[in-house]
Design goal:
Layout (H helix, E strand, L loop, with lengths): L1 H16 L9 E2 L3 E3 L6 E3 L5 E7 L5 E8 L7 E4 L6 E2 L3 E5 L2 E5 L5 E5 L10 E4 L5 E4 L5 E4 L7 E2 L3 E4 L2 E6 L7 E9 L2 E6 L12 E2 L11 E6 L5 E5 L4 E2 L13 E7 L5 E7 L9 E6 L3 H4 L14 E5 L2 E5 L4 E3 L9 E3 L14 H4 E5 L3 E2 L4 E5 L4 H9 L6 E4 L4 E4 L6 E3 L6 E7 L34 H7 L14 H9 L4 E2 L2 H7 L6 E5 L2 E7 L7 E7 L4 H4 L2 H9 L9 E7 L2 E7 L6 H5 L7 H21 L14 E3 L5 E3 L5 H4 L30 H16 L11 H4 L1 H11 L2 H4 L4 H5 L1 H14 L10 H8 L21
Parallel strand pairs: 26-35, 37-41
Antiparallel strand pairs: 1-11, 2-8, 3-4, 4-5, 5-6, 5-7, 8-9, 9-10, 11-12, 12-13, 14-23, 15-20, 16-17, 17-18, 18-19, 20-21, 21-22, 23-24, 24-25, 26-27, 28-29, 30-36, 31-35, 32-34, 33-34, 33-36, 38-39, 39-40, 40-42, 41-42, 43-44
The structure holds 2-acetamido-2-deoxy-beta-D-glucopyranose (NAG) (10 copies).
Protein name: Receptor-like serine/threonine-protein kinase
Subcellular location: Membrane
Organism: Xanthoceras sorbifolium
Length: 800
């Protein structure tokens, strides 16, 4: 093994020193590569392509692949072991039996053997076309990556009858996905797969080039060297892939054609030597409209079950209807599930179904299949009632006289611009649901905006504590004092927009619709008229302390440079006269507090996901953004949920603006009762560990679905969540903490571990608390969690 590694590193050294040296083309028996870093590869003579290991998403898993090696994206065009990524330390070796990929334990992960198998392999080469070949004694190739394609074909590649391509599961997951291309029986066909089995459903595209007369039937599927793609029949005639338009191939372009993970077969091009235009663009796609191409009683359609498809820039995009959330938020093609209890009402009550459910209109979307009942003549009211009182009914379609009822799962959903029929959704009253806004033609079923950018009705500390706290200043670590003259340029290198006040006044209809109030000011809903009707949340800041005014932009630029999917994005600001306004993305599902303390309580796994998302956002604020930011006021009211219920932290980076040494008022105290760390009350510097403390408290709230302080409990220890949790934890009564919630008690390992993590976070001494990064790793299960000590002898007991 050691010699192999030595040989491979020697080869690698030669390659990296002389990347264009042509001898690179011939790979001799015994050569090997190991999965240790990205550079472990063999190059084609021109250096255009590389064959070797690619690290998957910064994990310890590696993919054996071929990629375009001269473009920044290093686009992968072939891969070997997508279903079975190789762990770090795996080796690939060229033997007389072929290419063999072994894991560090010596077990075979993948192999490529010569055909016929009796031939001994003598060498291998990566050709300049991107074809990796094995040769035997003769000049014929005994194995070619071009004959064993994955999701992509390249110029100069020809597929014989019986070939297939399979899509990836997602853009970053190379497992076999939900679509396949088959060149069988004379035609190129695209089929949905009954994932995760490999059973095929009916095709959604066919070149229709098969014929009973075999000489008129397709025989080769050709991507010719200059970049054209067509079918050649047995009699030599060519057939175009209808309705593809003909293109004029150019020599200054790279080409590839890929069956993408969304099921669209796309021919892409990339400018070879352009410093500016550095991305692939789609030249031609099949089918033209993916959303309507699949139409079948069985299977989900292009998007997963219960979702609907719309075309955006030619590609299908999947969304959930109101009341539904993505099964896997990282893969929107996996469908949606209802986020409310269904059927005949609650398990505990026998209330009238009309009280439990309501109908919401959700128009411009069609689920054309799967009706189980058709009632007529009916009026809309009867149609709605019929669905509400029918346990099986999830949706009714009403067209003026007819009422079709459907049950779940819904399939083949697609967006429609026009359509007379109304889609009537049955949702449970009071449950959280996504915004009806954008797709709803009629506003009858107008959504209740569950609030957004709420800062919560914070309760502030009493004056005694104020004095104690008044020395404490929330600091930005490593923050550089920027002079006035640099400020504007620091703003301009963020993507933030400078709005004028009039524009914001128009967008918010003169600050009409209030979303919430908090320590920084009032938040209003608005819609930007320009551009694509983006909903925004506009926060008018209260008067800033005098000496903070000139820091406004400096601070903003720090916030503007943060970019993370678990932070609410700041779009821009307005700094005009007395007006200081911040413009944020709009979060349609309100605050975590609304979700958490509602009845019924949100799903356990949704809460688990949200906890992880908040932790990620905090890790980013503390450790990953340019200027580390301490939030100082982490609580459920400051966590907002977008339309997919993805958690985003809001109001970060503002605490400094409100702190002033001269004029302290109540509202300038950062932190909210029940969430603040004990060091706020001591004369010690405040560090990022204050956020860890607040996160710990909030994690307990998320686990238990109750507020950190609940005065209605007589028992004082019960009233304070942190005390109560520690008591229950010591007594081993985890079931009490989650109120016997089924999903949580079934997930008892996580429950137990997360409680321990939360208790670590709320330790009195900041240095006992783990850093957010470590919290994250413990939550994800990468680090073991030791037994936590009792959090504190000191208790924040504040009277109102
Ligand atoms: C590589 O092998 C081919 C035959 O497969 C041979 O023609 C060529 O000369 C070899 N190139 C080098 C640089 O050894
Ligand atoms: C390896 O490449 C992947 C992308 O292909 C990248 O995400 C990763 O950071 C790279 N790792 C190293 C060590 O360069
Ligand atoms: C990989 O290649 C890059 C340059 O291409 C080099 O900077 C880096 O040190 C190499 N990494 C290893 C582990 O050899
Ligand atoms: C890639 O890694 C990031 C962070 O490590 C993670 O959030 C993301 O889900 C990963 N993606 C996939 C497809 O595994
Ligand atoms: C290669 O061919 C020669 C002559 O045809 C034969 O003697 C030799 O055994 C072959 N070697 C292999 C490895 O097949
Ligand atoms: C890809 O997705 C499959 C199915 O969800 C999953 O089992 C596998 O772990 C994923 N692979 C990677 C590398 O994330
Ligand atoms: C092949 O195509 C011909 C002509 O369209 C058709 O009649 C025949 O049933 C097909 N065979 C298979 C196995 O699909
Ligand atoms: C098949 O098609 C060829 C033309 O491509 C024609 O010459 C031949 O007669 C046809 N055979 C039959 C049986 O129709
Ligand atoms: C590729 O196909 C196009 C159109 O069929 C043709 O004009 C061109 O000459 C072909 N190029 C090569 C290299 O065969
Ligand atoms: C790159 O250039 C191509 C062709 O000139 C054009 O179609 C494409 O839109 C350009 N892409 C970008 C990002 O400018």
């Amino acid at each position: 093994m050691a010699t192999l590694a030595a040989v491979s590193s020697l080869i690698f050294l030669c390659l990296s020193l002389l990347p264009y040296y042509s001898s690179a083309a011939n790979i001799t028996l015994g050569s090997s590569l190991s999965a240790t870093n990205n550079n472990s590869s063999w190059l084609s003579p021109s250096g255009e392509f590389a064959f070797g290991f690619r690290q998957l998403n910064n994990s310890d898993l590696f993919l054996l692949a071929i990629w375009f090696n001269k473009i920044p994206q290093r686009t992968i065009v072939w891969h070997a072991n997508g279903d079975n990524p190789a762990p770090r330390g795996s080796t690939l070796e060229l033997t007389t039996n072929g290419l063999v990929l072994n894991n560090p334990g010596g077990r075979m992960v993948w192999y490529a053997s010569p055909s016929p198998a009796t031939i001994a392999v003598t060498k291998a080469a990566l050709l300049d076309t991107g074809n990796f070949v094995l040769t035997g004694n003769g000049s014929n190739f005994v194995w070619e990556s071009f004959k064993n394609p994955t999701d992509t074909i390249l110029p100069d590649q020809t597929l014989d009858l019986g070939s297939m391509l399979f899509s990836k599961l997602t853009e970053t997951n190379f497992s076999k996905g939900r679509f396949e291309l088959h060149f069988d029986n004379g035609s190129v066909q695209l089929n949905p797969v009954a994932w995760p089995s490999r059973s095929l459903y009916n095709w959604y595209y066919s070149s229709e080039t098969s014929s009973i007369n075999s000489s008129e039937s397709g025989n080769k599927f050709v991507f010719n060297a200059s970049g054209n793609i067509y079918i050649v029949k047995t009699n030599g005639e060519t057939a175009q892939l209808f309705p593809w338009v003909t293109i004029t191939p150019r020599v200054d372009l790279y080409y590839r054609a890929t069956l993408d993970s969304d099921g669209v077969f796309t021919q892409y091009a990339f400018l070879k030597n352009s410093p500016t235009n550095q991305s692939w663009w789609a030249l031609r796609i099949l089918p033209g409209n993916m959303c309507t191409a699949i139409f079948s009683d069985i299977g989900s359609g292009p998007c997963g079950f219960n979702s609907y498809c719309s075309i955006q820039n030619g590609r299908p995009s999947c969304d959930c209807p109101p009341g539904f959330v993505f099964v896997d938020p990282n893969n929107r093609f996996m469908g949606c599930r209802p986020n409310f209890r269904q059927g005949c009402g609650g398990d505990d009550d026998s209330r009238d179904l009309g009280e439990l459910y309501e109908i919401r209109e959700f128009n411009n979307v069609d689920w054309p299949l799967g009706d189980y009942e058709k009632l007529q003549p009916y009026n809309q009211k009867d149609c709605e009632q019929s669905c509400i009182y029918d346990c099986s009914c999830a949706v009714a379609i009403y067209d003026g006289t007819r009422c079709w009822k459907k049950r779940l799962p819904l399939s083949n959903g697609r967006y429609r611009d026009t359509g007379f029929s109304k889609v009537l959704f049955k949702v449970r009253k009071g449950d959280s649901f996504s915004d009806f806004g954008d797709n709803s033609g009629s506003r009858r079923g107008r959504p209740i905006l569950l609030g957004a950018l709420l800062l919560g009705g914070s309760v502030f500390f009493n004056v005694v504590l104020l004095v104690a706290v008044s020395i404490v200043v929330c600091v930005w670590h490593h923050k550089k004092e920027a002079g006035n003259n640099v400020q504007d340029s620091s703003i301009s290198d963020t993507n933030m927009r400078c709005f004028n006040y009039k524009e914001l006044e128009e967008a918010t209809d003169a600050f009409k619709e209030e979303l919430g109030r908090g320590s920084f000011g009032i938040v209003y809903k608005g819609v930007l008229r320009s551009g694509s009707r983006n909903a925004i949340a506009v926060k008018k800041l209260d008067k800033l302390a005098q000496e903070r005014e000139r820091e406004f932009k400096t601070e903003l630029s720090a916030i503007g440079r943060t970019h993370h999917k678990n932070l609410v994005q700041l779009h821009g600001f307005c700094d005009e006269g007395v007006h200081r306004v911040l413009v944020y993305e709009f979060m349609s599902n309100g605050t975590l507090a609304n979700l958490l303390f509602a009845i019924p309580k949100p799903d356990w796994y949704l809460r688990v996901r949200i906890s992880l998302e908040i932790a990620k956002g905090l890790v980013y604020l503390h450790e990953e953004c340019n200027v580390p930011i301490i939030h100082c006021d982490i609580k459920p009211q400051n966590i907002l949920l977008d339309q997919y219920l993805i958690a985003k932290i809001s109001d970060f980076g503002l605490s400094k603006l409100l702190l002033s040494n001269q004029s302290r008022t109540r509202t300038m105290i950062r932190g909210t009762r029940g969430y603040v760390a004990p060091e706020w009350f001591k004369n010690v510097p405040v560090t990022a560990k204050v956020d860890v403390y607040s996160f710990g408290v909030m994690l307990l709230e998320i686990i238990c679905c109750r507020r950190s302080v609940e005065m209605e409990f007589e028992d004082e220890r019960r009233a304070i969540l942190t005390d109560w949790v520690y008591d229950c934890y010591i007594e081993g009564r985890l079931d009490v903490l989650v109120d016997n919630e089924e999903a949580a008690t079934a997930d008892v390992d996580r429950l137990h571990k997360w409680l321990m993590i939360a208790i670590w976070c709320i330790q009195e001494d900041p240095s006992d608390r783990p850093a957010m990064k470590m919290v994250m790793q413990m939550l994800e299960g990468f680090l073991d969690v030791p037994q936590p000590p009792c959090p504190s002898s000191f208790r924040v007991s504040v009277e109102y």
